Amino acid sequence: MEEELKLQIMDDTAPVWKRIAEHPLLAISKEPPLQLHAFYFDSRDNALQRARLAYRVRREDDAWIATLKASGQSAGGLHQRPEWNVAVESNQPDLSVFTDSEAAAMLAPFTELDLQVILETRFERHESRVTNTDGSEIIVALDRGEILARGQSEPIREVELELAQGNAAAVLEMGAALCQDLPLIPDQESKLFRGLRLAGLISDEKPRDTAWPLHRRENAGNAFSQILTWQLQQIIHDTRKHWAKTSAESFHELRKSVRSLRATLRFCRVLDPDNLLQSFRLALQEWFHQQNQKRDYEALVGYWTEIATTMTLDPAPLQGILSAQAPRQAEQLPQLVAILLKLWATLMRQPLTYTKSLQDFSETQLHREDRKLMAAGKMLLDHPEALHSLRIRIKNTRYVMITLAPLWPGKDSKALLKLLATLQGIAGEIHDADMAGQYLNPLTNNRKAGVAFQAGALLGFLQGREARQRKKFQKFWLRLESTARPWDS
After folding, report:
1. Residue whose C-alpha is closest to residue 98's, from 76, 129, 60, 70
2. Where is the CYTH domain positioned along the sequence (predicted)?
3. CB atoms within 10 A of CB 274
4. Which end of the chain lies in a sparser environment, N or C, as judged by fewer CB atoms within 10 Å?
């Protein structure tokens, strides 16, 4: 069984490459790199691919190695799949060399296939073997080269951490330490997958999963360990997606994913009596708050673009100022990934435990959280400033509800979720109006053409709408109080 973490290098400049090659954790030697040239084979009708089998023959310096990989799983950059390797004489395809009974049984329907090269990889590899503090051994590979398919090429710039023996958590911990120091991001796509896409044999990156399957009678600790692992894997997916194609929308989706994980960590805190996950809650909170200013500026630009269109104004003057003032620092994506990989390793080594079933625990906890939410809502009439903390409670309840809704398949939770989403949106707009002054007030004295007027117009619009939004919030809150909860018997 192959278990490896694949990390793509985000910045391929010479200084960064030197930092990676000299990182003490990788222990890369000064020896000349291995020269690798691999040929991937399949039939004209892609029979092996459809059977989820991968067959290659690779030259490793002066030796030829045939490799068969079977269906496995790839999530968050961690690849786990059965693998067989056999020394061969040349790069001529021959499936009969795999004599292991399991491999031979898989290949039995394909022994008469007319195989052809579908893609190639050429790269150099610096290798080392390191021992983790728990005794696990990890093979480190630093790869640089290219994928070749149908006259096209794509670069290979990656670090692979393959478990030779021991606990896969050691690979995740090593990956976390590297991401903390270096511009690396997990890659759930293998070289083969990238080559198949380059050759036009598959469409695109696999989409993120939409839900983790829940089993009501499962132990709550085991279930939430799996839920948290699934959620952090989705964040890694969204992190990579945002890095590959940065936009306000992809950043918003990433923040939502992080918020959902934070809500689940908070919700299942009672399953963590030794507080092993507290440091991750705090680290995710700090990362999230560091991105708030970037989010605020993007929200203001969005509001102004919409308002300027309605007023038939040129939005450019204020857009330009707000965009220029927005934070320029990167979103610290490798640092976020480092937190997630370490959390993953912790859950792998020490899963959460509890005596109750997932459904019993979730219903008890949701009753408790719902009472706190209703109490916070009653305070709002006398303390309007309490809306911010109430908004956070609404978010947490909604995100947990989205995760746990499949526990009550016979009951409709859509009405409750819709109300929570509406209240969250209204409260968010009120919050945006409250924070707008600190960004826009200084611009009302700006002497650049149109900027002062546009800043004042945007500020006036947001503040004028705030009172209406507070009344609207109260109306929907009354509906929430009378809406049935799916977890009530």
Report:
1. 70
2. 1-199
3. 7
4. C
Q: Other C-beta atoms within 10 Å of 250: how many?
A: 16
pTM here?
Answer: 0.91
For 422-471, the pLDDT digits (tens) are: 999 999 999 999 889 899 999 988 878 788 999 999 999 999 889 899 99
What's the one-letter identity of residue 60? Answer: E
DSSP state of 326: S
Residue 102 CA to residue 315 CA, distance in Å, equals 65
What is the mean predicted confidence (pLDDT) over 36-41? Answer: 96
Cβ-count burial 333-369 (b if 16+ within 10 Å, e if not): bbbbbbbbbbbbbbbbeebbebeebbbebbbebbeeb
Name residue, tokens 């708050």. 289
Beta bridge partners of 68: 55, 84
For the chain, the maximum distance between any two Cα atoms, rounded to a whole number of angstroms, is 82
Please give the distance of CA 130 from its chain centroid, rounded to a whole number.
Answer: 27
What residues contact residue 52 under an 8 Å CB cut-off, 6+ apart?
70, 71
Number of neighbours of residue 134 by Cβ within 10 angstroms:
11
What phi and psi values does residue 364 have, to the nearest 5 degrees?
Answer: -60, -45
d(CA 239, CA 253): 9
Considering the chain, what is the average pLDDT of its residues? 92
Rounded CA gap, 385 and 161, in Å?
Answer: 50
Report the distance separating Cα 31 and Cα 126, nearest Å.
8
Q: Which of 273, 486, 256 is nearest to 370 (CA)?
A: 486
